[in-house]
Each structure stands twice: as structure tokens, then as C-alpha cells.
Automatic annotation (TrEMBL):
Residues 149-220 form the Potassium channel domain. It is a multi-pass membrane protein. One of its GO terms (cellular component) is membrane. Its main location: membrane. This is Ion transporter. The keyword Transmembrane applies. Keywords: Ion channel, Ion transport, Membrane, Potassium, Potassium channel, Potassium transport, Transmembrane, Transmembrane helix, Transport. It comes from Aquicoccus porphyridii. It is found in: Membrane. The keyword Protease does not apply.
């Protein structure tokens, strides 16, 4: 690799991983792009695959592929990088975006799983904790809410792909979303039923995992928030806001407050 290539490689790496204002703005730009694509995927999930929608998917696929290639290029261990869940999700989304015109609207609904990338980057989380007070105060609740919403929309897409048109009353994305939410909340109005083994296993998965995620969100909202501060002795990351000693090892803590310099 030439010195000029190496220099460009370093510049790209610093954009993704650096601590400069330019790198921070770049990562916030990626966050905005992720949010826009997710909103777009959700808004068009129930739409037929018109030519304009296919063209938009291709454009988004090119942009996602560029981001994917950049992250892979700067990764120190590329095999380990490829095995990360969010990288696998991006690969799946790329496959769906390219193949949806041939596989149909049901498979196109799987584009929403890209929401798994949202705020799950280590460097982006660091930026948000540093720059956004609201995020610092409510990080657990925000992440729990994101995980629950991602689960709902991902399971909706899966229900539509696997059982759409094969179960009574389950024909469209809206039907699948309605079934997923009523199953997760254990409301079960009974107007859409799973009559096969596969469908019932899906319903059980929605209830078990969905209720667990919902309880995690409720706990994050109603249980007093912890402050993220790494204990220098034992490494415990979360403590009570007024803690002066680590509950795990008893080491003195110096937790910064909003008024600290």
C-alpha cells in the first residue's frame, strides 16, 4: 500500500473512530442517514413495489454499500468485523434491497431490520453520552425503546414473509403489524389466528421475546436511573447518582455532575 493510500486509509478510519469535531459530525450524519432510511422503509413497507420505489431502494443500497465497504476497509480484524450482528444485518438488508423486485413485497418488508443499526455503534454512543444530556439521563430507556420497536417491525416483516396469505385475515403488512402488536401485548382479539405449527411457533416467539423487551423498557423507565461511571478498581459501570463508594468493591468514586468542570 502506498503512502498516499495509507494516508487516505487513516483519514477514513479517523472519520469513523476519531474524537475530532469533524469525526463527530460525520457519525451524526450517519445516524441521520440511518434514521431517514428506517423511516423510509417503514413508510413504504405496505406500498406495492412501484418503479420509483425500486429505484430508491437501489440508491439506498449503493449508499449503504459504500458505508459497509468503508467500515470493512478500516477494520483491524475483518473476519471479526464481518461476524458482528449489525454487519450481518446490513448484508441482509443489501440482499433484500437488490432482490426485492424479484421476490415480492413480503420480502421487501424485511428492509426494516436495518433499524438494528440505530444508536448501537460504540463510537456513536460515546458521542451521544458526551453531547446530549437527555441521552445521558435516559440512555437505558432510549435503547430499550429502540430495541422493542425494532423487534416489533422485524417480527412484522417475518410474519408477513412466512405466513402472509397463508393464514386467515393475514394478507398485508398492516395485518401483520396488527397481529404482532396484539400478540406481543397478549390482547389477542382473535380476528387473526395462526392455524399452523409454524405460525403458532412465531406467535409464541413474539410473546416470549416481546414481553421480555417490554418489561425491560418498563424497568428502564420506572427504576431510578444509574449513572455511567467506570469504577477504577473493579470496573463496575453503573452507580447511583449520589454514590461516593462503589457498591461492588467499596472504592472511592468521583462521579462528575452536570455542574462539574
Amino acid at each position: 500500500m502506498s503512502s498516499s493510500d495509507q494516508s487516505f486509509h487513516d483519514r477514513v478510519r479517523l472519520l469513523y473512530e476519531g474524537r475530532s469535531k469533524r469525526a463527530t459530525r460525520f457519525r451524526y450524519g450517519l445516524l441521520i442517514f440511518d434514521a431517514v432510511t428506517i423511516v423510509f422503509f417503514l413508510a413504504t413497507a405496505a406500498m406495492p413495489l412501484a418503479p420509483w420505489l425500486v429505484a430508491a431502494d437501489v440508491l439506498l443500497a449503493v449508499l449503504i454499500l459504500a458505508d459497509f465497504a468503508g467500515r470493512l476497509w478500516i477494520a483491524e480484524n475483518r473476519l471479526r468485523h464481518m461476524l458482528q450482528i449489525y454487519v450481518i444485518v446490513d448484508l441482509m438488508v443489501l440482499v433484500v434491497l437488490v432482490s426485492a423486485p424479484f421476490l415480492g413485497q413480503g420480502w421487501a418488508a424485511l428492509r426494516v431490520i436495518r433499524a438494528l443499526r440505530l444508536v448501537h455503534s460504540y463510537h456513536l454512543l460515546h458521542d451521544l453520552r458526551r453531547d446530549v444530556r437527555f441521552f445521558r439521563l435516559h440512555e437505558d430507556a432510549i435503547l430499550a425503546a429502540v430495541n422493542l420497536l425494532v423487534f416489533i417491525f422485524a417480527m412484522t416483516a417475518l410474519v408477513l414473509v412466512l405466513r402472509g396469505g397463508q393464514e386467515p385475515g393475514l394478507e398485508t403488512y398492516v395485518d401483520a403489524l396488527y397481529f404482532t402488536v396484539t400478540t406481543l401485548t397478549t390482547t389477542g382479539y382473535g380476528d387473526i389466528l395462526m392455524t399452523t405449527g409454524t405460525g403458532r411457533i412465531l406467535a409464541v416467539g413474539i410473546m416470549v421475546i416481546g414481553v421480555a423487551l417490554f418489561l425491560r423498557l418498563a424497568r428502564a423507565i420506572f427504576v431510578p436511573a444509574k449513572v455511567r461511571h467506570k469504577c477504577p478498581e473493579c470496573g463496575l459501570l453503573k452507580h447511583d447518582p449520589d454514590a461516593i463508594h462503589c457498591k461492588h468493591c467499596g472504592h472511592d468514586l468521583k462521579i462528575e455532575t452536570e455542574g462539574a468542570g
